Amino acid sequence: MNVANTQIQMRKGLLEFCVLHIISRGEVYTSDLIEELTQAQMIVVEGTLYPLLNRLKSASLVEYRWVESESGPPRKYYSITEAGKDFLSTLSTTWKSLVNSTLLITSKN
Question: What's the whole-model pTM score?
């Protein structure tokens, strides 16, 4: 097995949760999402974010609006919907449970 592949899969599994969490803080532009995810070492390839945002939009968990830009084309700003907030709340509960379970298992010798 390749440890790097496993690490990438672990990050991908948490990416949706992290993206929803970032968007839940307030309206966000895609490049800001990419910057925060990159700084946190949660995203390896930018191309993984756009399909995820489309899936979240299709599931009515996020929405976007176009904002005119003085320095180029219009920008798409994402915000979380009420359904997205409920979904994120459920994911947060699941995350806390998984962290507790993992710590319980990994803390034993």
Answer: 0.88
